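Please describe our next protein:
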Amino acid sequence: MILESQTDIIAALSDPTTYGTDIDHVDVCQSHISILFLAGDKAYKLKRAVLYSEADFSTPEKRRLSCVREMKRSTIYAPGLITDVKPIRRLKNGRIVIGGKNGTEIDTVLEMRRIPRENLLNNLLPSPTFDRFEAMDLAESLAELHNRAQVFKTKWGTDTVKKIILENESILSCFCPDLFTKEAVNTLTRQTLSMLGQTAALIRYRQKTGHVRKCHGDLLLSNIAHHENRFWFFSPIEYNETQSCIDTLYDLADLMMDLEAKGLRRLTNILFNHYMAYTNDIDGFPLLPLYQSIRAAGRAAVCAKRSTLLKGADKKAVIKEARRYFHLATCFITEFHPVLIACGGLSGSGKSRVARDLGGMLSPAPGAVILRDDVVKKQIVGLLPHQPLDDQYNTPAFEEVVYDVLRQEARTALGTGSCVIIDALFYNPTERQAVENLAKELNLPFVGFWMDAPLAVRAERVEKRLRNPSDVHSSEELQKQLHLETGRISWHKIMTDGAREKTTEQVLRILKKEIKEVKK
């Protein structure tokens, strides 16, 4: 609830004359807990005088302390963004000013650099300038932040997750029947609590093994900018440890949820699989449907609360947004029938490209889990995807371990209802049969593809590789694979030397036909 109107402060900060003669216009952006004033090359953030279950800014002292904490946390997520914490003062003549030493201090603002609005991801996306490599950069930035974050082994846990689910229900129920139906809210709560029960042991395990950390806590697209060739993460949660000391995958789920809400499944899939390549956190994957659903429901609740502050067209737009997020919350926990897909072929055959293109086209969100032999090899020995693997690991015994891990991780992901694509050489008939047997064991559809291209095309591809986990980067290294005996290949053979779109269309046609026939 709002405890003070702050009307006179908001009016003063909306007035260009408050900032000097060089400012002729102030843009104002509002949320349910803060207001941002954009003046010239600076921005000023005012905390609203509100008291919610998740945020207490009920007094000027609490708002000032929150500003100090946010500035401190921003040095981690957006170094150089916040430049100062300044008092808001009322002079003897009644005028309200920012900073200075005269007058009575009545509130506090954060002073920060102004990032162009078009660089915020919610405004930037979709964009032809933000594609695969930018999504990979974002994944690596987030993985690094999570890796450095402080570990908490006594926070988070199933009780906390349950509390968040019930708080979402409580808020959403306040907007029934105007925004949502009571039946839909009850059904969503019942399903998420059921999924919580199914995953409770995994949540406790992750709590004990260091996956609960001090995270950003609010990774919406509106809180991330791509500016000056790096990512800026705005407004980390500083006022509520329940929302910041969380499972790292709960942090990731917020971003993935918002990308999905914007219809950017391809980017979501690239981001997710690259993050997993750098964190080796596939064991936690069964929690993502639950976490994404909770995040979407929470966002629906925030939008619903925000709608009470607006009127007219703005109010209608936010209500529409609230309903969209609520629908998304239900979709994340809808049961799907997974498919196991294998993309095999020698280096440069195009199997990874096909897997990547296909991954973002499959449901449920975030698309297919792509498991790649080159990544798994390095994860096993503790390397990052870009680090070279020593030749001592190029042995049949190590290769056998790699394929065993691929199948184990595929089993984990398939168990959540997600499609899986295993991207590997698969030159050994035994390994091809083993992955087919996995699908039979799980009673799931299996589709195998064998990618190929003329040697000259493959050589050109490996020499032009960028940011690829494969250590095959030259035609000389490619030559080493020519002696491999593949045996008889029964999988669908795809020549990839044609147009990329044609290759993808061919794979999709086969996939749809195979799945349809299996369902019969």
Summary: DSSP finds 18 helices and 15 strands in the chain. The mean pLDDT is 94.
